[in-house]
Design a protein that fits this description.
With 173 residues, the protein is an alpha/beta fold. It is built from 7 helices and 7 strands, in the order E-H-E-E-H-E-H-E-H-E-H-H-E-H.
């Protein structure tokens, strides 16, 4: 069984991936895999070479696209009967059919804001107040869109161990 864990920036995808790995469970932070994703100018096949996560205009005019073929290759190499793939992309509707279940990490705006403002690394989405507000501005729309596509909501305000335990419960249901 292959399960996608998704959510907006700051929802806890990377943290949950690390938690699953610490428990000896096969998990992949797919956004961190070399060549799996690229940032494109919206509506084009042009790589966004000067993309900047601190610039809300660049955020709004970009698409974070996952290579479907590379993702298929990764899933085909899955070692265990159960594996988790953590990430988000602009082409989520193309990604969904590759998975047995889709789990959406959903946290309140205050939690998301706090997580984004305390992230390490200036290259991360939400690294400025202006970019955090951009992320929060599309939060409700995006989460509703994912739920309409069939994603199962996982409340993600709690500590990472509790959220991971909820995820494991959903995996066996």
């Amino acid at each position: 069984m292959s399960i996608l864990i998704t959510g907006i920036a700051g929802s806890g995808k990377s943290t949950i991936c690390k938690e699953l790995l610490s428990m000896g469970i096969e998990a992949y932070g797919i956004e961190d895999i070399e060549g799996m994703f690229a940032m494109y100018r919206k509506g084009t096949k042009e790589i966004f070479s000067d993309f900047d996560n601190a610039d809300p205009e660049k955020i709004k005019n970009s698409e974070w696209l996952c290579s479907i073929n590379k993702l298929k290759e990764l899933i085909a190499k899955q070692h265990d009967g159960l594996a988790f793939y953590c990430g988000v992309a602009s082409n989520m509707k193309d990604i969904f059919p590759l998975f047995d279940k889709i789990l959406l990490l959903k946290a309140d705006s205050e939690s998301i804001h706090k997580r984004l403002s305390t992230r390490e690394g200036t290259e991360k989405m939400g690294n400025t107040e202006e970019s955090r507000q951009t992320v929060l501005g599309w939060k409700d729309w995006w989460e509703n869109e994912m739920e309409e596509e069939g994603a199962v909501i996982v409340e993600a305000q709690d500590d990472s161990r509790s959220v991971t335990e909820k995820i494991l419960e959903y995996a066996i249901i």
